[in-house]
Amino acid sequence: MSNQRTGLVVVVSTRAAAGEYQDETGPRLVEFLRELDFDTPEPIIVADADIASAIEEIVRNRMPSVLLTTGGTGITHDDRTVEAVEPHIERAMPGIVNDFFRRGLEQTPLAIVSRAVAGTRGHSFLMTLPGSKGAVKDGIATLRPVLPHIMTMLERA
Questions:
Q1: Is the pLDDT assigned to residue 2 strictly greater than 80?
Q2: Mean pLDDT of 3-9
């Protein structure tokens, strides 16, 4: 295993994948990971319908130290990110999700209408985030103080 921590951000949005709008949440998550010294490329953008195959490919071929997704966590028929990521989590980390939702509820009662999962797979950490700027801000606030420690623990495993 390389000493360089790696990150990968996947933006899940059919409209962004079609070029109908410019996503801002993916670049913000990339910036956050780079601030923590993760070698992180620009975000990957996939349509909602393609998230399961994209996650399968990432897990099989290029699993990073940290995999963050943004978007596709709502309750509409095409929101499939949680279902795509959750089967790949070996150890769930509900405390991370609880803190994330606590932060969201401080801003809006609608925060609990979304869904999120977080956990580990081997030496990697995975988390799904909603696609709003506010949710990504809350996700960063949740992860910033604990992600370095999580990585240290996973690297020792």
A1: no
A2: 95
> Which CATH number characterizes residue 92's domain?
3.40.980.10
User: Is 13 part of a structural domain of the chain?
Assistant: yes
b vs e for 49-61, b when ≥16 Cβ sit within 10 Å of the residue's Cβ? ebbbebbeebbee
pTM for this entry: 0.96
Confidence of residue 3 (pLDDT cuts 50, 70, 90): confident
Q: What is the tally of structural domains in the chain?
A: 1
**Phi and psi dihedrals of 107, rounded to 5?**
-100, -40
Specify if 1 maps to a domain: no
- Residue whose entry in the numeric block shows the structure tokens 């909602």: 48
Give the contacts of 35 (CB within 8 A, at least 6 positions apart). Answer: none
CB atoms within 10 A of CB 125: 25
**Tokens 């390389």 appear where?**
2
- Residue 101: helix, strand or coil by DSSP? helix
Contact 66, 7 (CB under 8 A): yes
Q: Is the pLDDT of residue 1 over 60?
A: no
Question: How many angstroms separate the Cα of 146 from the Cα of each of 40, 113, 126, 143?
Answer: 18, 25, 13, 5
DSSP conformation class of 73: -
